[in-house]
């Protein structure tokens, strides 16, 4: 049995809520492929490029913190940290500081 993976362009065609739901699933369950999780973090942040999607902002901010707290791969954590800065998620600065001081990954720090 083969699995069908939507590429990033197919995700962009989805409505923001459906897109975010699929990306959250990838971030939290796709343990064997950090490149998929990295893409999912990036595409989640990208939802906020359109101001019409601000209703999803808090959920996306919390997702980025979840990645900092639960992800094993430093590159994926680094992308979440980048999204926090890029998207001006000021309420999450304390989470960035904690990661910078305590994370075992040099890349995440």
Notes on the protein architecture:
- The protein has 109 residues and is mainly α.
- Helices cover 64% and strands 0% of the residues.
- The chain has six helices and no strands.
- Helix 3 runs parallel beside helix 5.
- The mean pLDDT is 91.
Head-to-tail CA distance between termini: 39 Å
**How many domains?**
1
Most strands sheet: none
Helix/strand/pairing class, anyone?
A: mainly alpha
Rg is 14 Å
Q: Report the average pLDDT across residues.
A: 91
Q: Into which percent range does the helicity of residues fall?
A: 55-70%
Q: What portion of the residues fall into strands of 2 or more residues? A: under 5%
The residue ranges in which pLDDT falls below 50 over 5 or more consecutive positions are: none
Number of helices: 6
From the spread of the alpha carbons, the general shape counts as: globular
Quantity of strands, as a count:
0
Topology as a string of helices (H) and strands (E): HHHHHH
